[in-house]
Each structure stands twice: as C-alpha cells, then as structure tokens.
Amino acid sequence: HGQPSCWSSPQSPAPQDCHLCEAAGAKGSQGRERKQNTRRGGAGEAPGDLLGEEPAAGAPRSQPHIIFILADDQGFRDVGYHGSEIRTPTLDKLAAEGVKLENYYVQPMCTPSRSQLITGKYQIHTGLQHSIIRPTQPNCLPLDNVTLPQKLKEVGYSTHMVGKWHLGFYRRECMPTQRGFDSFFGSLLGSGDYYTHFKCDSPGICGYDLYENDNAAWDHDNGIYSTQMYTQKVQQILASHNPRKPIFLYIAYQAVHSPLQAPGRYFEHYRSINNINRRRYAAMLACLDEAINNVTLALRKYGYYENSIIIYSSDNGGQPMAGGSNWPLRGSKGTYWEGGIRAVGFVHSPLLKNKGSVCKELVHITDWFPTLITLAEGQIDEDIQLDGYDVWETISEGRRSPRVDILHNIDPIYTKAKNGSWAAGYGIWNTAIQSAIRVNHWKLLTGNPGYSDWVPPQAFSNAGPNRWHNERVSWSAGKTVWLFNITADPYERVDLSARHPEVVKQLLRRLSQFNKTAVPVRYPPKDPRSNPKLNGGVWGPWFKEDEKKKKSDKSKGANKQKKMKKKKKASRKKGQSFHCRSRLAGG
C-alpha cells in the first residue's frame, strides 16, 4: 500500500531491528490527519459501497441484523483456536468461517469496555477513566453521550439488550431502556450469583439484581443459570420479531466472570483439571459455547441468519486467580499489559467478502460504534467527536485499518508510581501517572501498570494458580516507563525504553496531546441511599428527580446569596486584595 515494509508486514521484525520502525512513532501526526478524515466512520459513504457495489452475494438485502455478543472476563487463551484445553467448538467454527480478529483490543475492565463500545469514545472523553462504576456510586455513563442503540433506532432498528449492563443505574435516566434499548432483560451490576441473581456489595449491603425493562424481574427468580436464562430470552425475542425488519441484539453474558458457578453436566469433560477454579471456569465456558450455538440456531430457524452480522468479543483479559488464562500474553484483567487488553474477537457473517480469514490489522472496541452505524445506513452527527473508526472494509475485505494508534487509557487518580516523575518523562509527562498508548508497532506504559507476571498453563496444575510456576518479574527500582515493539514482541519481554529514547519522547508527547482533551474523572463517593434495603430489597435507581430539583433550587438560592456577599466584600477590599497579590508575586 505504498508504506514502508515495517508498517505493512504482518511478520514480526526481530526486536534488535526495531530501529527500522522508529518512523512509525513520527507518523503520529499523519495518523491524526487520517483520523480527522475517517473519524466519523465514513458516514458520507453510501452503505452499498461498504458491502459491495452489486446487490449480489455479499451485499445485504436490506439493513443487516446486528448481533453483538460480549463475553465477560474470557482470557486470550481461553478459546479452542488459541490452543486452550477447554473445548469451544461453536466459537471455533464461527470464527473459522468468519474473520478472526488477531490484533483486537478492548479495555482492561468491565465498565470501560462497555462504555467505549456503546459510545465510540475513549474513557478520557466520558469521565469513566478510573476503575468501574460501583453499585453504591451515584454514577453512570454521562447522559449527554449518544449511544449505539439510539443511533440504530433512528434508522428503524428494534434494539434489545440481554445480560449485564454495568454502566450505572443510580437515576432512572441511566437505565438501558432510557439509553436506546426497546427492551432490557438482565443485571445492572458487574457480577452476582448465577442462580439467585443476588449480590452483596459489602456486608449488609445486599440485593436482588435481575431486571425486565425498568422493574425487578421477580417472576424469573426460578433458579435458572443465567447463561441459559439469557439464551432463552434471546430465543424468545427472535421468535417474536419480524426478520424483515432490522434488529440490534446486544447479548452481554455474565459468563465467565466470577463467582465460578456452572451446571453439573458441563464438568464431565474437565474432571482431569486439578485446579478447582480452572475446572469450574472450563465448565462455565463450555456452557457459554453451547449457548452461542443455540443463539445461532435460532437466527437460522427464524430467518435472520442470511442477513446478519454476528460479532463476538471478550470485554477484557482473563483473571488467573479466577480460572482465566491469557498465556502467552503478559499480565491479567485490570492491567494494561497485553493480557489485560488484547481480546478474543471475531466477526461471522454471510455478508463478509473474505470469509475464513484472519485480520491482523489494528481494531479497537470503540470502532464498533461507527462501523455498525454505517452498516445500518445511519448517519453520524458532525458534532460527535468519535475515537472509533469504520473498520468494515478492513474486516470484510482485508484492507488496511484506518487506525494507527490506540489510547489504552490515562488514569489520573490511580495509585501513583512512587518513583515516577516529570524528569523520568523528559519533562513531557509525569511518569507517576498510570497510562498506556499504542502507536503503530510501539506500545508505551507509564506509572503503575499492574500485575505483570506471565501465567503459563502448568500454573493451573495445582490448587493455585501456584505462584511458583509463574514467571516473576523484578524490575530495577524506580522504573516507571516501558516501551515495547508489540509486533516483534507481543509477549512484552524486551523493554526498549532505554534503547529508543526518541520513540519514548514521541509517545509521551502523544499522551500529552490526548490528555489535553480529557474531561474530569467521574468517581463519586458511595451514597448510603443506594442500599437495596431502602428499595424493596432490589438494586435499582435511588436518586429521585424531585429531590434533585429541590436541592438545585436550594443551591441556586444559596449561590446567589454567596455571590452577593462576595461582591460586597470585593468592593470593600479591592485595594487590600491588590496588595496581597503583589506581595505574593514578589515573594
């Protein structure tokens, strides 16, 4: 494509040859220009151009049905085609007949990935850049963000969500049905019991967490395992909808997130796994694989399949202490090492041009927003500043990705690295701050990047994972900057920050540029009114609008009084304040 070989070759250059690709960092400004051109997902292009000029094979008869399946905490290794001992025949077959995404990134935790999927924006642009939304926090995805289902509804889609929300619920306006979904059946929190749908956030702060639309679904409290219950709901939705009308179905399974629970029959193939967490995890994944098979059978049975696009993704890396495996990647869920953010993902669709292929181009979870809206023949408003790109041609036709970088995150309130400093960041960036960025082949991490071990499969042979089996890392004291060539070294074993200081500086500048666009972090303290005991034993909206109005009216009155007082003081003390400022300036 007329670019240097170090850009276009899917093969990995040797780490010592990384200087050949130093220009990649310098291409950042060009990447920005490309981003401005493609930032709105090619909304101006005719939808037919994306799927083939002729309305023959490979082109939809109409707007495609979109089925987005999001697994929870599935590790990078935890799929058959990545070498897992856990059998996933459905996922393997769907991926083999579709397009495997083998350079695909998400965020390291639940809320961040879900927020970026549904808005097409990085966390720094929604205020959700720190941790997750806790059950007791008066917080949710900011209401001024347009969501994917809202945009799809504009062009005639029926929109349905089944599964885990985890984007906040303290106000009624935060609920899924208020954010673009015609129907919602699932849980609001990040985790809970798979059978009782009960969750304790802390001792005494416990409640029921299963909803149908805006109300607690007590009628469904029948002890049905959530993976199976959600699949039954999907089957009902497909059976009752007209397949001639487009549907967006967002299926966010609870599996394979802890607690580790599964029906007994799924254990039969995994008795030989000694590690109890890994054995339970394997059973949960086997049940999930069967569930996805049942979803695809329903798509065929009710007439959706031929005009459908099925996207499968994990929301973040696996958690080894809870049975997940990211081998041979480094780190785990909750970290910015590859094991936390490089995900299992594929697209399966009769509408794909290059079926049975592997996409090694850079794709990020924010890209689904513009990609799916464009496929749905929707328009992306000019004033929506997206961080995602339309990557359909990249996936379907094997073209180059418009994406040249990914801001993995900047978290200004995460625990600061003790030895981080502006000096370590060449005066460009404070390396005490947790951040990570990818530009072409290069990846830079600063601050405290989190649990950094490699956890090989044999670590699960005992009751562990046994830390003795892990490859431990002892960095020299004071280290707060890492640089890797991910194409050459996907397992992050060779730190090149000392060898390539110019590349480090380029990526630090890029971080600094991103940081100038960040909005303040939203991470409020917990609200005692969130206690389910005050809400009929259910986790649900607790912040009442009338209370809010009363408070805002009071605060407006108080603010007026304060302003009047300030004005009076200012007029009395103008000279004094001037002298005070001049003394400070002189000191």
Number of helices: 15
- SS strand fraction: 5-15%
The secondary-structure class comes to alpha/beta
Low-pLDDT runs: 1-60, 565-587
Cα distance spanning the termini: 60 Å
Radius of gyration: 25 Å
Let me know the average pLDDT: 85
Helix coverage percent: 25-40%
Strand order of the largest sheet: 9-8-5-4-10-1-11-12-2-13
Strand tally is 18
Silhouette: globular
Major beta sheet summary: 10 strands, mixed
Keywords: Calcium, Glycoprotein, Hydrolase, Metal-binding
Biased composition (Basic residues): 557-587
GO molecular function, one term: metal ion binding
InterPro entries: Alkaline_phosphatase_core_sf, ARSB, Sulfatase_CS, Sulfatase_N
SSE blueprint:
Elements: H1 5-8, H2 22-26, H3 28-38, H4 47-50, E1 65-71, H5 89-97, E2 99-101, E3 104-105, H6 110-119, H7 148-154, E4 158-164, E5 183-187, E6 198-202, E7 205-208, E8 211-212, E9 215-216, H8 226-240, E10 247-252, H9 276-301, E11 308-314, H10 338-341, E12 345-348, E13 357-359, E14 363-364, H11 368-375, H12 392-397, E15 405-411, E16 434-439, E17 442-446, E18 481-485, H13 501-515, H14 545-572, H15 574-586
Parallel strand pairs: 1-10, 1-11, 2-13, 3-14, 4-5, 4-10
Antiparallel strand pairs: 2-12, 5-8, 6-7, 8-9, 11-12, 15-16, 16-17, 17-18
Helix pairs in contact: 8-9
GO molecular function: metal ion binding; sulfuric ester hydrolase activity
Biased composition (Polar residues): 1-11
Biased composition (Basic residues): 557-587
